[in-house]
Records
---
Amino acid sequence: MNSHHLELLQNLQDAYASLCNLSLLTLDPEGHPLTQLSSRCPLTDLVVHASSVPFYERVRALLPSYAHIEEPIYFDAYPPVHRGLRCFLAPVRVREETVMFLLGGAVVERGARAGIRADMENPEGPYPPGPPWLETLAQVPDWDEADIARTRQHLLKMVELIEMALTAQYHESRHQQHLHLIYDLSTMIEQHESGCYEVLQRYETILQEIDFCGLARKQEGERYEVFKVFGDNSHTLLGKTFSTGEGFLGQVALTGRAGSWEHLTRDPRAVFFNAHDVAVDQLFCYPIKREGRVMALFFGGSAKSGPIYRDIQNLGQIVATLLGAQMVNQTLQREMNDRMMTMTTILEIFHSLTVVSDSQTLLTILVDTSLHLLKSSFGVALLRREGPGEIVTRGLDEEQERLFRADMVARFFAQESRAVGAGPTVLTTPWGQTALVAPILYQQDVLGVLAIGLPEQLEPHQRGLFTSLVTMAGLTIHHVRTYHEQPTRVAPPPETPAPVPAPGKQARPDRWATLSAREKQVLELVVKGLSNREIAEQLFISDHTVKNHITNIFSKLGVTDRVQAITRAYESGYGR
């Protein structure tokens, strides 16, 4: 409380001390005074200033016994020091938590005066000699039951007024805190200054009622994994998973509706938290959606018992919305980067295809680049010929190659299959694996087939990339057959000048020649689809050495990834 609020509290206390003809004092929960004593009882003043036992020390010793009271009580304040003197103690509670006490006294109850006088007259008694105890006692009236009941009602009204003021002050303060938090989080997300962890940290720090909060992200199938968490003893949840419909969090994932729960100490649905040593008595969870589908969950909770107040729920919903906006923005940014890389890759591949002069090399480029871009385990490119047809495979044995060739010939190369659809389709291979298959067309003629083993999760942009590769393949195969594989075609006249690069463009240098012999070995294995570890095992070198070679290769070829390195290798004549 600031000085202005304390001054108002002091004025209110003085007014009620006069109304009740009682000395009043306001204490914090530990027994330290928040106000000055409003003195209306001379005996109380004498007890406070002249007692053999320090007054505030006695009060602090007694308060823990009354910490959980919810209404004013009337009790022996100083037994056995000052027998017969009684006091009122009234708790002031905000949001079910005691924030201060009102102490009023001292009261001489009817029938207790004789015992108090005897103690005061006893030289060995609790009242130290010197102060005018008996004279002061004579100034204090006796209280009967009606006086006590009336004073209790007055104190209840005073407590009610204080609680109303403190509650309003609390809500105003919390409102300002929440506005600042929302503004800060919005700014952090807008300027990309912080990630989800910093947002959770700020949220948990502002809300003292919350012990922990976290984020769970949807994985493959119907599983969710906790990937961010903040709060005391909550780190054990990191990396843990649950299913849609499982427990409280799974229920929100299933329905797409927010939820809050209380009194969960013995609730079996809280087993996800209990199994990982996170105590929880209250819990909330909000879905984070993209295009109407749950993509993540924002949750939080506390081991403390009590309700989850509306302001906490409202702020949680806002934070969930902000986190959702951040996550969607990051996802869109990644997708945009993927598409930019895809476009760059397509241009590189298209350039490589334009310099190829034979169909076999062209098929090899198609299969190798498709495997890398779609991260697949096998790939096949089959070209239609009068005979059995040219074929390039990766990841298949001889029997699988034979079965695939027969299956594709039956599906796409038969006379009645000339008008097949141009789009890629998912088919099951003769040995039971699924593959993304598309005919290679040129003006409705089937020139060949490209098939790639279906990844576990095929993203829309990957499907679009596969379609683009197949389309480019049809144009390029037609070009190769027309201009390179037709022996009767007339060559250009000798006097035709060599092509000159367009203004602003330079012919690509022979970067292949800049590679060392070992770097060429490594690149050849990269083209074949081997991983760093597989390359290391085959060349009997360390993984670290392979990584250094690949870094040098990328630098010399002027590329940034394996797909671009593969296409640059074919441009330089690899495989011919």
Note: Residues 68 and 309 are 21 Å apart (CA to CA).
---
Amino acid sequence: MARRAVALRHLGKGVCMTSVAIIGGGPAGLMTAHLLEQRCGPGWRATLLEASDCLGGKMQTRRFDAAPVKYEAGVAECYAYDAIGPDPLRQLIRDLGLSTVPTGSRAVVLDGTLLRDETDLRRHFGDPALRAVQDFRRRASAMLPLASWSRGFVEDDNRHPWARRTAAEILDEVTDPVARKYLTVEAHSDMATEPHLTNGLVGLRNFLKSVPGYGAQYWIHGGMELLPRRLAAGLTRTDVELEAAVVHVSRTRQDRYAVRFRRGPTVVEREFDAVVLALPYSQLAAIEMSGERLRRAMAAHVAHYDSPGHYLRVSVLFDRPFWRKAFSGSWVMLDAFGGCCVYDESGRHDAHDHGVLGWLLAGADARSLCRADDRTLVGRVLDALPASLRDEGRACFVEAKVHRWAGALSGQPGGFRLRNPRVAHRPEPLRHPGVVVVGDYLFDSTLNGVLRSAGIAIDLLREVAGDRDRARQPQPAPAGGVDARSRLFRQGRRLLGRDAPARGPVLGLHLLAPAQCAVPVVELANAQRATVDEPDDRRAVRARIDDGM
């Protein structure tokens, strides 16, 4: 057993292995494992711990019982950015040997009237409604050009004039009531929350998805679940453990991390060099973080992003696609449930002679209806069909499946105020630089954002590993030998002692590398502490003052 431990930690003379625990087997965890194997050397190994009995998270392609017909139970599409520059997600999908199919629609049902495009809006509601919609879209496009829209949320967006206003306040500036309702219905299902519960910048991104050039979408041929399946199948240096619910993370005396997880009735503990928390922010609180500094940092992280969004998916199998005579796009936006998207699932999967519609309810209605039974939900969505299709829909009904995603994503992606991405991905960088987070909530609640988040996490872990490896290398003794080293150590202690200022950072500390000595934490006046931390890029010991930490 001892020989095996040595072999795991050392691949060869002078080569030390880096072990990483990836907690979560959804798209975030799988993309992190994929990028780790791509960007890190053979000395890196990962263990992916998933609490459930399957991988994929919110990417689930399922089948009905009554017929061999597929439908999407979770994430339904990806956003295409390759028209304006590199698109890493699109390239990843191609690299995995998957093909994509573009989707699109402009159909909206408003007050029972099916509007196939803006021409129908003018025909049924007049020129004032159309002009108000067009004016709003021109204004929105000027507020967020396409290049800025595609990058997701970044720290500079804190200065955007709409960042400190709610999406509801922006919509209220549309004076035409028909146009205001039209715009709300178009954006509501994408926001996953109510306009008054998210800021104008989030609303702006979703308002623009209906503007030509913005929000081009596609789905994966054969089902969205193929992406996590191909990612998992391609892993060669990652051990995957299912039904392994992580319950505790702590730092060891050797500056590693002990991860405890349940396996059946027992709790197993393993040590790793780093930990990636690839979970929705709402699930992070279920893991006990040992140590006051890490506990408080993770609690603050969750609080910053705690703006839950809600989805409810009701997928219905019909004996034929009876709605095709009314509309033929990939989806239609209904004004029911505050604005919901109804996907034509049989347009993406081979439904044979059947038809499939998938209702995506969002926000407050999704949250409240998640408590309803399946029979009630099916009745509600069928009643939401336009009157001209309602009776035929009930007559053609075969089977329905319901999937509840209450609180499964962020209604305020990126949080507010928006943080520097590196800061956002490492909740406690001083004492726990090896604990990083990955998730769509850190950017824009899309798969594109997940991949970007995973890339940042890998870059941070490589930096930490580089610091660790450099610290383990033999260091030359300072001029003057051991006595000079001791004097320098004592001088550092005095600088961190009672004579240090009670407030403000302690500056100018250039002590020995931490591989040679460990400078303890010294209590300062007024309950302040100067914290001496792990090595940074400059191999110097850093000290800072933390209120109440």
Note: The longest strand covers residues 397-410.
